[in-house]
């Protein structure tokens, strides 16, 4: 590629922004006794390094599960163990059993931050670069611009490098999965995605589209011939990779069950904290969390999730295409985020990743969504004292999108991919010509609300009776936006295939 | 919607570049800052709380006011904004005060005043010839120039990490250069006079300004062979130039003259009590001289030519002391450095006088003045290399030869700034930013001049690539070796000497190109 140097520059900009954000505070800095996610990750290093594998997920005198017990799948535990070996080499105090609790120092922060950067550099960033290089029908310059915008997405940077988590690992594996599956390296793709699930169980949000897409591919090849072979191969890959990851825990039944119990804590309730999904927003009007019994909540949330993602998944199985696959990833993850049980505000990153992937297809809507998704985490970011980096990276991302995709010029029905939808509506409602203008106004309203709410949250003190007023408002507004996006993405998925068929008819 | 589009600057690459770098500067706010942060805080306090008559006498802090009066006034104005952030920082006795609001204010004041720099870059881009209009935006000289200036690595780390106010000062300088290019000589002279009263380090390049304005502005015409036509001398122009400079100086120094404090002001501005070299040797001629002296003394000791008892202790134990005593070679006095500097500057000045080549010739002379004084000056800071690098960017997009010199100069010059940031969290930042700038400048200039001969010969390529291993040795390998405690100065010494070679080479190459360059442009100007 003759523009390799621009690609290098873009990656370096991404890295610089990541490292500068990491100079800021992290979650739970200097806040005993529980601290935050930073301490959780450090604690897992301590546990995995000092205890035998069998005790990792069990409560014991050395492993108090109430204090940041391990509740992620085995791959995370192995990663912690790896980091712990490095930590031991540098300073054994960082991971000493019991005594290292709540350990904080400048050097340790530097170490933790660099583990995130290295994991990101090895897994997520190469996947982004490769994904954009594999994009068809756009110029080299656009590909590079696309890499820059994806790498500048503020949500992921702020959570990984500010708040402190390793989302780039699981999202990176998922991205490798998407890359593999859409380039027809199905086995590699499914292997990568299995790794993603085994790193973080939340990746299950993406699992249905993967399943449907691969199944659809098998159907397309004919279930009696090549398709069946592929299906068997895929099944073997998935089973093998799962067994490999879970090997130490398959020795006893109780071990496996305990890990599963830790991964899916059903008894923790419908939602925690303030999260921008349906249940939390609805809770403002009606306290469903307290009124309904736990199992009803569970069934209810399952039904809603299932119903909302069903159409898109059926469509994908019947007409598998890599474009449809990306959009289905978005809508499924969004359904899970909005309706499923026990959702965290950070889970919006799982929706943002596939939205980043369609940035070059629908730049206007993707940029809008990515802005809203970052905004929805505002209360969390404020708690971690990340206001400054949040504002700066969001502005940088917005400017990058505006400059490279000129998003404001791409608001026609054609470019919003709503052409076929509005044509079919116009059959019944001939005067339906204002769709694109409505969307522009909605964008304006949405952005203005977000800016105003941010300003209010930062400058005003909430009234004493309602201490959570602003964070609830933030969640409510974001939730409304997300509902709109769910409808939008479903419309695109549903009408896109028709459009394809029409084109085939014409040709 | 349309208004929003315009406000967001759709498709306007310049504002995107400027905004981008501004946001990067904001991200750098929580980074390490040097004692210069306290210096400027102290000056805020002095100018805010004391009458003018005390400004240049106050000595509670060791960081006394040692910039010219305009800078003091600048701090005075800033202090009136500062009081809304944190009143405490304006107390002279509040030494080393750095609350988070103080930090925010000081950092933002640098970022905000950089607006002048951005404007100056914009003006410079206008006057740099757009002869080669490439198809792609990224290959246009204007685009490359604005990236080279706006995203300059040195300026970013010196101003926004290390902490200083070079941005708007260089803005003034670039603006005055741009005005000279636009034939608005009076404005250019005015801006430069103002600049001199902000920071007197710019005196280094004053000869270039003086000679150029005299030769190409006060003499209104040349003979057909380009030599001077004495009868075209314009008294009006000389007098108006003189008046401008005089008025600016009067405004700046007048109050202190009235208070009869001028000697005190000057004694603060030009302290000759410091040593030949800074604690970390700036990569210039004297670094090479000192290194040679050290090598000779070690050889002398080995071969028993020197008596170990007669050698001054300081020179053997450490290279980090301010007063460096030479053992073998003769010691250097301030007067000697002054004479060396003058001798080094003279040929370029002659060139400017006898071979006038319009503003480009002036720019070359200015760069040579800056570089020569960097090479031979007394107590030169490594940061002073920016004085040559930034104007050189303007030349680099014009000619392949200049681009080659520019790349060697910037890469080594920027690398020599590395010791400014020695804290671990800033290590990735400086390496990433350096790579960012170096890769961009080399690749983009190579693309711009791809039709001409390669920019580097094998020797230069080898030298520049050597910076990588040098960095690895100095910052990654050396701290793990046992020499760390015994010879802590070795990384600094290596860096300084290695960079001094490159900068000397670039200086030499540029000088040769200026001296042998045939005067082509002169026939145009008749």
UniProtKB/TrEMBL annotation, chain A:
Q: Which organism is it from?
A: Sapajus apella
Source organism's superkingdom?
A: Eukaryota
State if Ligase is listed as a keyword: no
Q: Which keywords accompany this UniProt record?
A: Endoplasmic reticulum, Glycosyltransferase, Membrane, Signal, Transferase, Transmembrane, Transmembrane helix
Localized where? Endoplasmic reticulum membrane
Q: Which reaction does it catalyse?
A: an alpha-D-Man-(1->2)-alpha-D-Man-(1->2)-alpha-D-Man-(1->3)-[alpha-D-Man-(1->2)-alpha-D-Man-(1->3)-[alpha-D-Man-(1->2)-alpha-D-Man-(1->6)]-alpha-D-Man-(1->6)]-beta-D-Man-(1->4)-beta-D-GlcNAc-(1->4)-alpha-D-GlcNAc-diphospho-di-trans,poly-cis-dolichol + a di-trans,poly-cis-dolichyl beta-D-glucosyl phosphate = an alpha-D-Glc-(1->3)-alpha-D-Man-(1->2)-alpha-D-Man-(1->2)-alpha-D-Man-(1->3)-[alpha-D-Man-(1->2)-alpha-D-Man-(1->3)-[alpha-D-Man-(1->2)-alpha-D-Man-(1->6)]-alpha-D-Man-(1->6)]-beta-D-Man-(1->4)-beta-D-GlcNAc-(1->4)-alpha-D-GlcNAc-diphospho-di-trans,poly-cis-dolichol + a di-trans,poly-cis-dolichyl phosphate + H(+)
Its family? Answer: Belongs to the ALG6/ALG8 glucosyltransferase family.
Q: What is this protein called?
A: Alpha-1,3-glucosyltransferase
Q: What pathway is this protein said to act in by its record?
A: Protein modification; protein glycosylation
Q: A cellular component term (GO) from this record?
A: endoplasmic reticulum membrane
Q: How does the protein associate with the membrane? A: Multi-pass membrane protein
TM helices/strands, residue ranges: 110-132, 144-161, 173-197, 227-249, 298-318, 348-371, 386-408, 429-457, 469-495
Please give the InterPro entries that the UniProt record associates with this protein: Glyco_trans_ALG6/ALG8 (IPR004856)
GO MF terms held by the record: dolichyl pyrophosphate Man9GlcNAc2 alpha-1,3-glucosyltransferase activity
Its EC number is 2.4.1.-
Mitochondrion found in the keyword field: no
Q: Where is the signal peptide?
A: 1-22
Q: What class of enzyme is it?
A: transferase
Q: Which Pfam families match?
A: Alg6_Alg8
**Function, as annotated:** Dolichyl pyrophosphate Man9GlcNAc2 alpha-1,3-glucosyltransferase that operates in the biosynthetic pathway of dolichol-linked oligosaccharides, the glycan precursors employed in protein asparagine (N)-glycosylation. The assembly of dolichol-linked oligosaccharides begins on the cytosolic side of the endoplasmic reticulum membrane and finishes in its lumen. The sequential addition of sugars to dolichol pyrophosphate produces dolichol-linked oligosaccharides containing fourteen sugars, including two GlcNAcs, nine mannoses and three glucoses.
From TrEMBL, chain B:
What's an example Gene Ontology biological process for this entry?
A: protein N-linked glycosylation
Residues that span the membrane, as ranges: 12-33, 104-122, 143-158, 188-214, 234-259, 335-355, 361-378, 429-449, 461-483, 489-508
EC annotation from Swiss-Prot or TrEMBL? 2.4.1.-
Pfam families from the xrefs? Alg6_Alg8
Cellular-component GO terms for this entry: endoplasmic reticulum membrane
Which GO molecular-function terms appear in the entry?
Answer: dolichyl pyrophosphate Glc1Man9GlcNAc2 alpha-1,3-glucosyltransferase activity
Key words of the record: Endoplasmic reticulum, Glycosyltransferase, Membrane, Transferase, Transmembrane, Transmembrane helix
**Pathway(s) where this gene product acts:** Protein modification; protein glycosylation
* UniProt subcellular location: Endoplasmic reticulum membrane
Q: How does it sit in the membrane?
A: Multi-pass membrane protein
> Kind of enzyme, top EC level?
transferase
Which PANTHER family has this protein been placed in?
DOLICHYL GLYCOSYLTRANSFERASE (PTHR12413), DOLICHYL PYROPHOSPHATE GLC1MAN9GLCNAC2 ALPHA-1,3-GLUCOSYLTRANSFERASE-RELATED (PTHR12413:SF2)
Q: Which family, according to UniProt?
A: Belongs to the ALG6/ALG8 glucosyltransferase family.
This chain belongs to the protein called: Alpha-1,3-glucosyltransferase
Source organism of the structure = Sapajus apella
